[in-house]
Specification:
Number of helices of chain A: 3
Number of strands of chain B: 0
Structural class of chain B: mainly alpha
Strand content of chain A: 15-25%
CATH topology of chain B: Butyryl-CoA Dehydrogenase, subunit A, domain 3
Number of domains of chain A: 2
Structural class of chain A: alpha+beta
Largest sheet of chain A: 5 strands, antiparallel
Number of domains of chain B: 1
Oligomer: heterodimer
Helix content of chain B: 55-70%
Largest interface: A-B, 29 and 39 residues
Shape of chain A: rod-shaped
Distance between the termini of chain A: 103 Å
Shape of chain B: globular
CATH superfamily of chain B: PhyR, sigma-like (SL) domain
């Protein structure tokens, strides 16, 4: 073994006695705590919580329904089939399965499981059109459309615009 | 992969999940080795501790950067420490930091030039112990005065006793380069310590033109890490 190697061995042995100071231990401990806390908070935000999904779904449905409702009541925006015609505008109907809160023509979705909207449509050649004034040979109807909270849509009933009686949907 | 490196890799995997216990265990395992490396490279405890701190903060922030296919965790940690050390050296040179060629500010009373009481008490109060400490001090100074590339291989291979392969992984060079640098570093040390070494190694050409410039590189405790 050369003198240099011997000298380096002695130096290495003295170095092995060196230990991180209490100050360094404390700094590292604080850094680890801070990092772990930050990591925990990030994890919570990333977790796909069912309630977040549910809340987002409800908000989307509510937003869509509110847009439809406002469009229906406004003659210049929204559903093209709803024109400023002289025909009386029926009030928004609510499906029988909604809560008692949704009565009297008020738009209240919660805790309803769906809502019914009435739109005016023209019937021509067995096709329903939801825009424009009726052409020759066409008839106008009010169509009740039920939109459920799960996103499904059904035509509930068709009401001739010129009559007040209800034509049940087959 | 050895059992130890596999355990280290598992610790880093746990780090990715935010496991604080894994972070502490990693520090317990390798903190002291990184501190020794920092001391050998900087000759300054404060700088060495800052390097250790920054190294672990780096792996906490970016554990995904560790790739087991490219080397062991210890090599990765030493690589971070080395990078930080280079940065400190650059800052020190830019700021005109005073060379720190010995640890006298730590071990020796600046007024009397004698070993301070605390240091002296840590050894047996004999002439042999003091002589031994002086010898170590000479070696420490001689190592610190080496060009950085040579100081690194001495610190990794001779002082930390890492394998050539691990040192090559840390320094990003072939094993043959590690061997030649080590040979050159030992020869330089022998010259500076007035030991007789084979002259053939003394005549070995320098690996790069940077070696000469870096021999003046020094670190100062005044340098602060950011």
């Amino acid at each position: 073994m050369s003198p240099v190697t011997d000298a380096l061995d002695e130096y290495a042995e003295s170095l092995r006695a060196e230990r991180p100071s209490a100050d360094l231990d404390g700094r590292l401990d604080a850094a680890i705590e801070s990092w772990a806390a930050e990591h925990r908070s990030r994890s919570v935000l990333r977790r796909p919580l069912p309630w977040v999904v549910a809340a987002a779904s409800v908000a989307a449905i509510a937003g869509g329904v509110a847009l439809l409702a406002s469009g229906k009541k406004s003659s210049d925006v929204g559903t093209p089939g709803v024109s400023a015609s002289a025909l009386p505008m029926p009030e928004l109907a609510v499906s029988p399965s909604v809560s008692p809160l949704s009565t009297g023509g008020q738009v209240s979705l919660f805790p309803a499981d769906g809502a019914v909207f009435r739109v005016k449509a023209n019937l021509a050649s067995a096709v329903l059109k939801t825009s424009g004034e009726p052409a020759d040979g066409e008839r106008q109807y009010w169509v009740d459309v039920r939109i459920a909270n799960d996103g499904t849509m059904r035509i509930m009933q068709v009401l001739p615009a010129e009559h007040s009686r209800i034509v049940p949907r087959e | 992969m050895t059992a130890l490196t596999a355990e280290d890799a598992e610790l880093v995997t746990r780090l990715r999940r935010g496991d604080a216990a894994a972070a502490r265990e990693l520090y317990q395992r390798h903190g002291a080795a990184l501190l020794r490396f920092g001391l050998a490279m900087s000759n300054c405890r404060q700088t060495a501790e800052d390097i250790v701190h920054d190294t672990f903060v780096e792996i906490l922030r970016h554990p995904v950067r560790f790739d087991p296919a490219r080397g062991s965790v210890i090599a990765y940690l030493f690589g971070i420490a080395r990078h930080r050390m280079s940065r400190v050296a650059r800052i020190s040179m830019r700021d005109g930091g005073a060379p720190l060629t010995s640890d006298e500010d730590v071990l020796v009373d600046p007024d009397t030039g004698l070993l301070d009481a605390g240091t002296a008490d840590s050894f047996e109060d004999t002439g042999d112990a003091i002589d031994r400490e002086r010898d170590i001090e000479r070696v420490r100074t001689a190592v610190f005065d080496l060009p950085r590339v040579h100081r690194e291989v001495i610190a990794l291979c001779d002082l930390e006793e890492l394998s050539y392969a691990t040192a090559a992984s840390i320094l990003g060079c072939p094993i043959g380069t590690i061997r030649s640098r080590l040979s050159r570093a030992r020869a330089l040390l022998a010259t500076r310590l007035d030991y007789a070494e084979p002259s053939s190694e003394e005549e070995e050409p320098a690996e790069s033109s940077n070696d000469v410039g870096e021999s003046a590189l020094s670190l100062s405790c005044r340098g602060s890490l950011t």
